Amino acid sequence: MQLKQVLSNGKKGGLNVGAVLILPEGFELAPTDRISPELKEKIGNLSFQSYHPNKKNIIVIGPVPGQKYREIVFPILSPDPSTKKDIHFLKYPIYVGGNRGRGQIYPDGSKSNNTVYNATSAVDASEGRQSVDIIPPGPELLVSEGESIKLDQPLTSNPNVGGFGQGDAEIVLQDPLRIQGLLFFFHICYFCTSIFSSEKETVLKKFNCMK
After folding, report:
1. Is residue 108 part of a domain?
2. Where in the numbering of this chain does the Cytochrome f large domain appear (predicted)?
3. Going residue by residue through the chain (211 aa), what tens digit of pLDDT does each one get?
4. Are residues 82 and 167 in the same domain?
């Protein structure tokens, strides 16, 4: 069963996802003209952006429909050590974070309708005073009219079905000449092995003929 999240209008809708990728200094989002057709097909219609003009190594994506994008491929452009002296052919750490669902708090600190609402005060009705807590559409009410309410008591359920996860891995910036040399070495080994096997078969045939 597909999870549904509470939308801003209080109705249920598809779950959104987003991600952030933190790369080593010098790595950045690949420009469109540097992305191969095969990679473009994997990326689809996703739109990536840098976290900040001065932080091009931090790439963010989302929110996007979670049902459609179960896997996200980041187009990355690596730096060239021949032009950047502070970059070397080494193993570098990378960090990734992913989230699903809407946020529970807006940037200004106010609550969204995707979180639990608690009583901000406790008032005895017999005193003739009242306290008002405004609850937006979305969360399900847990209290009823005439019920005695305590301070910080949950007034609603928590409709949030989202979450956040993070991980780290390593990326190796490899010298292409080293890769070419390794492939050449493997080719020579294969060639020598083929010749050795052929000569071995020839010797065995000659030995059988002598018998």
Report:
1. no
2. 2-101
3. 478 899 999 999 999 999 999 999 999 999 999 999 999 999 989 999 999 999 999 999 989 999 899 899 999 999 988 888 888 888 999 999 999 999 898 889 999 999 999 999 876 666 667 788 899 999 999 998 878 888 999 999 999 999 999 999 999 888 766 666 656 666 677 766 766 665 555 544 544 555 5
4. yes
